[in-house]
Specification:
Layout: H1 5-23, H2 33-40, H3 71-76, E1 95-97, E2 103-106, E3 109-114, E4 126-133, E5 137-143, E6 147-153, E7 156-161, E8 167-172, E9 177-180, E10 185-190, E11 194-201, E12 212-214, H4 215-220, H5 224-231, E13 248-249, E14 272-273, E15 288-293, E16 305-311, E17 316-321, E18 327-333, E19 335-343, E20 346-353, E21 356-360, E22 365-370, E23 377-383, E24 391-392, H6 393-398, H7 402-409, H8 413-417, E25 426-427
Antiparallel strand pairs: 1-21, 2-3, 3-4, 4-11, 5-10, 5-12, 5-13, 6-9, 6-11, 7-8, 7-10, 9-14, 15-16, 16-23, 17-22, 17-24, 17-25, 18-21, 18-23, 19-20, 19-22
Helix pairs in contact: 1-2
């Protein structure tokens, strides 16, 4: 039978409780607690209590939290309580949960963001979760920054027009991706009863003034005589334009057929990548799949590169770093932990679960482990770059003269010689 630390501690507590009358009896007819301790009081071995939400390690260092605390949050974040003795120094917070974001409720949907004021370490990427009912529209708009989207529930229709007058109307399924370059006009519409997707932008300060421009907002702040002259219609046409920016509004699904005399955005100019139609082979290491979508297979995506990762239970995203950008992450399913190494003996371990976002600083070393015994871990990696790049620690060591590695790390030469020379991106549990 397997006993957990909490079970042992509970049993020990019961033993103490049974012995307590003698331990606290009056001096008149009973022996003192000190005299009876060797017979009635078990010796409590100090055990780590991170699983119980207490900052106490196996050596007994630390102590129980006696002040105000969020117990469920403590239980979800044992590494925040000091579970990893390899952590050292001061590392800024690198984690934000969408559950901590303010949700904006709108006719036909909702949105909640993670921007630089939520996660100051995320300078390259801002993000949002957005929900649309059937027919609901994220109204016509454009941004000062590029927009990247990933559908994870339902189906959506995107439409866009570029500066040359070419257009695209496309329906996206779960797993599909879009990318709208900076300044390109576009809109998004829900096609199923409920639809949801992840949005990302290549600037962490997405809420800054002058970042997003909505068409009705512009029209209501332009003199009507100018509008009439511009569109060649009567001024009264614009009497019903919403005065308050709706952002998301109700609508019905119509025909997607709109032909441009200048042609379509297709091929290398397409703003859509149907990743759901691409079969992803197992990643090296056998621990899951890693689907890369960047400018090498989605040419228009020149400022946001992505990887969609599925890691099997207890699997490991190998120790690595990214030489070209900071890494932004969204955890869609499962539980994980990761240690981020910043150099100069500084490292910190974080615990993650579905709905969390994170950022690993530019060139910082890290891994990601699936902590579940049964559930797949699914997450998305984004980089402000035209391509995904990583350097594998194992591969680097394996392709360096063995005597140099052995001398540096003080490990046996035969161990170095057995290191794999091919990347093991997702390592399966043994």
């Amino acid at each position: 039978m397997r006993f957990t630390a909490s079970a042992v501690l509970f049993a020990s507590t019961l033993s103490i409780s049974a012995a307590s009358p003698a331990s606290y009896a009056s001096p008149q007819g009973q022996k003192s607690s000190k005299q009876q301790s060797k017979h009635l009081r078990p010796v409590l071995e100090k055990r780590q209590q991170f699983a119980q939400g207490q900052p106490i390690n196996a050596a007994g260092d630390g102590g129980p939290i006696l002040g105000g605390t969020n117990k469920p949050l403590d239980l979800q974040n044992p590494d925040g309580l000091g579970a990893q003795k390899t952590d050292n120094g001061v590392v800024p917070n690198l984690k934000w949960s969408f559950s901590d974001s303010k949700t904006r409720l709108l006719p036909g949907g909702w949105v909640r963001e993670q921007v630089i004021t939520d996660l100051p370490s995320s300078k390259d990427i801002a993000s949002a979760q957005q929900h649309l009912a059937r027919g609901a529209l994220r109204e016509l708009h454009w941004h000062r920054v590029a927009e990247w989207g990933f559908v994870y529930a339902g189906r959506v229709r995107v439409s866009a027009v570029d500066d040359k007058g070419k257009n695209q109307v496309d329906d996206l399924d779960v797993g599909d991706i879009w990318y709208f370059p900076k300044g390109q006009a576009h809109t998004i519409q829900g096609l199923e009863a409920e639809n949801e997707y992840l949005l990302a932008f290549d600037d962490g300060d997405f809420d800054a003034t002058g970042t997003t421009f909505n068409v009705d907002d512009w029209i209501t702040h332009t003199p009507k005589d100018i509008l009439a002259k511009n569109f060649g219609v009567d001024e009264s046409v614009f009497d019903t334009v919403p005065e308050k920016d709706p952002y998301i509004g109700k609508a019905t699904v119509g025909s997607p057929d709109v032909e441009s005399p200048y042609g379509k955005l297709e091929g290398n100019s397409s703003y859509v990548y149907h990743a759901s139609r691409v079969k992803t082979p197992p990643a090296p290491g056998g621990g899951g799949t890693l689907q890369i979508v960047d400018s090498t297979n989605f040419p228009i995506a020149t400022t946001i590169a992505s990887a969609i990762v599925t890691l099997e239970p207890k699997g490991l995203r190998e120790l690595h770093w990214h030489p070209n950008a900071e890494e932004w992450l969204y955890f869609h399913q499962g539980t994980a932990r990761a240690t981020v190494f910043l150099g100069n003996q500084i490292a910190r371990t974080f615990d993650f679960r579905a709905g969390d976002t994170a950022v690993f600083p530019d060139n910082s070393g890290h891994y990601i482990e699936n902590t579940s015994e049964t559930e797949q871990l699914i997450w998305i990696e984004l980089y402000k770059s035209d391509h995904v790049a990583d350097v594998s620690l194992t591969q680097w060591l394996a392709l360096t003269p063995p005597n140099i590695v052995a001398s540096t790390l003080k490990i046996p030469l035969d161990v170095v010689n057995k290191l794999k020379k091919e990347k093991q991106s997702l390592i399966a549990a043994k």
